[in-house]
Amino acid sequence: MPMFPTLTFRRQPAVHPGGASAPDEARELPEAVRRELPLRFEAVAEALHGAADVRAACSVVGRDVAKDGAALGEALSALRSTYRLVLGSPPTFEATEALSVAWSEATLEYLHDLSCEDPLTGLASLAHVRTRLAEIYRDAEITDVAVPGSHALVIVELCFREPTAVPGHHFTRALRLVQVTEAVRAVYSGGQTVGRLGQDRAVALVHRSVDLGTQVALLRDFLSDLDLGGAEVRVWIEGLPSGTESASRLLDDLAR
Known about the structure:
- The protein has 256 residues and is α+β, with helices and mostly antiparallel strands.
- It has two domains: 24-114; 126-255, 2-Layer Sandwich (Alpha-Beta Plaits), CATH 3.30.70.270.
- It is 53% helix and 11% strand.
- It has a four-stranded antiparallel β-sheet with strand order 2-3-1-4, with helices on both faces.
- α3 (42-50) packs antiparallel against α4 (54-68), α3 runs parallel beside α5 (72-86) and α4 runs parallel beside α6 (93-114).
């Protein structure tokens, strides 16, 4: 499972009525509270104690505990314990939502890496596209046919502009991508690998032939007939590098 970024939460120094800064000890989370905190939840406690961005802390912690293999119920229970220790109150809806969403997204990313297929769209997962691309590079070493001349990536990207119906809703965006996928498969129906790159991109790993430009033009025609709820579509041909490691980095860049 991919490593997740760790945020550092900085608190503004407390100020006494006379204008002087409070001693460092007054700003620190009490050691007795710190010792009782659930594993991984120190960042949330520090955010609560220092009036920092609690939602951001919950998002980071939600991903971390998912990476550790904790169930969502365990994570929510630990969040309640943290709030009780620091504030003596239950967690807010915003904090609970931030942790739950982050936990769900991290868990889905892990499942996608294990599976050959994205469960919502039916597209090949990024891990599967990477594996298929590696196979092509291995075959090229045997045949002496350079991959940049034999294969290419056709990228289709959904571009959502404000205002649009529920622009940030993951399910709605996935349904739009399903529509795009059907158009891609209508053009590339000969066993080519069609996968997902990030939230709003699909990729087809295709042979670089004299018909490639015509195929992309046909794909654009199919896509122009779709009702995508105000979203625009970009289509382009992405050349492949000469080495497999560079190709893997290219996929990572396109998936961001």
